[in-house]
UniProtKB/TrEMBL annotation:
Lineage of origin: Bacteria, Bacillati, Bacillota, Bacilli, Bacillales
SUPFAM superfamilies registered for this protein in UniProt: Amidase signature (AS) enzymes
Family annotation (InterPro entries): Amidase, Amidase_CS, Amidase_dom, AS_sf
Amidase domain boundaries: 36-462
Organism of origin: Pseudobacillus wudalianchiensis
Protein name: Amidase
Amino acid sequence: MQTSQTVNNTKKDELWRWSATELAHAIKTGAISSREAVMSCLNRIEEVNPTLNSLVKVFPEEALAAADEADKAVSKGEKLGVLHGVPVSLKVNSDQAGHATTDGVVALEKNIPEKDGPVATNLRKSGAVILGRSNTPAFSYRWVTSNDLHGRTLNPWDLTRTPGGSSGGAASSVAAGMTPIAHGNDIGGSIRYPAYACGIMGLRPTPGRLPGWYGDPKGDQAPSVQFMSVEGPLARSVSDLRLGFESMSQFDPRDPIYAPAPLLGKALQRPIRVGLLRDVGVQKPTAAVNKALDETAQYLTNAGYAVEEIDVPLFKEAYELWYLLCMMDVAGAVPTIEQMGDVGINKAVSYFFDVTKEFWGETPTLSDYIKGYSRRGTLIYKLQEFLQSYPLLLMPVSTEQAFEQDADIKSRESMRRIISAQWSMMSIALLGFPSVSIPTSVVDGLPVGVQILGMRFREDTLFDAAEVIEAHSTVKTPIDPRS
């Protein structure tokens, strides 16, 4: 924890290096002001964002005014939220009053909501200062963050590699020190994969845990969005993930499946058993990913966890089932995507459907769709039974390190390879369990890490295990953009 003495010895323009936990404590105790923290992050944005294009809109005057209000609240002795005065960013597919919810689409450039969505509402309740909007691919539907409206976001570790998608702007900005915490959402890896690609941490909570609403506030959400899409934080430390998680967790009536579950659960029986799931028969992990899994297993073992290599075949079935249920929902939006989307998203969606046909045939039927949801319930209860013996599962985030930019639209074969590498992204989203992506090391100049899955509404157990891994990680952020 930073102390006031540390503050006196630290240049105020380097506050952007601090964690949200440190900033919140220093602001609360009067060691620094929110204005100083926000100014430091704005200066950092001015320095590195022109290279990375992580934040596509920044509003200094609005952010500094909010920071001044936060400082007044401190001076008056008012009750402070967990992120009081701390700068954060919000993804451009989430509503923020007065700022366009573009979703990376040119035709939505003037889609300006009158009021905050659930995420912005809860961030403000926690005292956070929203200073910018992070980039996403068009319609938030690629593992590369690029669109015709806002341009391409780059990975600070290697500008030729994807920062991930769809929360690539969020991950890139946090890794480079623009804000300590960023908002993201995830229906098939859109928090976890960008965190992995950029060497930071990302939490996919249990569906219904953090309220959100993706899409037109007056419209209807597809079943896959209601049951599989989640909101969540990206950060550089486990302590910041906890703060981001808590700050976004308050009830909002707009979320149709919100569940007011406690943030802390009953202690697990010790030693806590961890199942190491390396390969489900889709694509074998690279040497770098296998090494990360092995090292992490040892870290957890040394900390008193009981790690055992296991096989859970249902993940392969869940991975393929995601492509039936989600892509049939996407099918209804194809005319809109064709009309409003850019070349990249249209090509990506076309290749997604090509791979889906390999699993489910040329034209899946409504009966297939209904049976798919029935099967989903069965897979969920089977995994819940398994987790009674192994409350945590250790597995890859992706079987490879960060892909090359636009590898998803290079060819159908390239898309097929990427889809296979991301089997854990899709299977966990379909099953609806919480998971966290944690960096472990740097291999050939790129970060690599692992993923921990836990029981529903037991994110607290994920944080505990992630702290063990964090203590041994050799990935250091924030970093300056590298060529």
